[in-house]
Amino acid sequence: MFADVTVKALFSEKGFVGIKNHWVYDEMYSAAMMSSADKDKDGKLSSSENSWMQSAILEPIEKNNYFNYVQYKSDFLKAERIQDFKAKIVDRKLVLDFTVGFSVPVTADYTMLVIVVSDPSNYIQMTTDMDNSDVDSPELLEVEYFSDALDGLTLFRGFRSEIEGLYLRYKKK
Description:
Helix content: 10-25%
CATH architecture: Distorted Sandwich
Number of helices: 2
Structural class: mainly beta
CATH class: Mainly Beta
Radius of gyration: 17 Å
Order of helices and strands: EEHHEEEEEEEEE
Number of strands: 11
Shape: globular
Strand content: over 45%
CATH topology: Acetylcholine Binding Protein, Chain: A
Low-confidence stretches: none
Mean pLDDT: 96
Largest sheet: 6 strands, mixed
């Protein structure tokens, strides 16, 4: 299965709070999932069908941090929660929007993070467009970011070589 992914790093006045994920699956996987989820066969996802979709897709990858990897210092952060999950069909493709919550407080000095959204097992062939990633932060934070290769980052050595990360640094203004 294949998924095109875009991400947005989210900040509050307290610091880094999560990653907004936007996943667009291939038509074959989308058709199979809709066949299972769309109980009333109306081509749309009701609230209960949306809940089924969240359980079917995200619960199995919870142990893999929902494929959202955030390096902070020398460790990966553990995902704290899923928020704002929404599944829909757009042009015969399953589209998921959800936020994976994290917590890294802001300080007067720069805090550095590297974000990668990828399935290292390649069960889902994810194409994450880090060049078009974005940041949502309040005015009282100074946030800088860019995308680049993961070369030399030990925690990411199990990832495919073409995977890029979103490098972030932030502090109080």
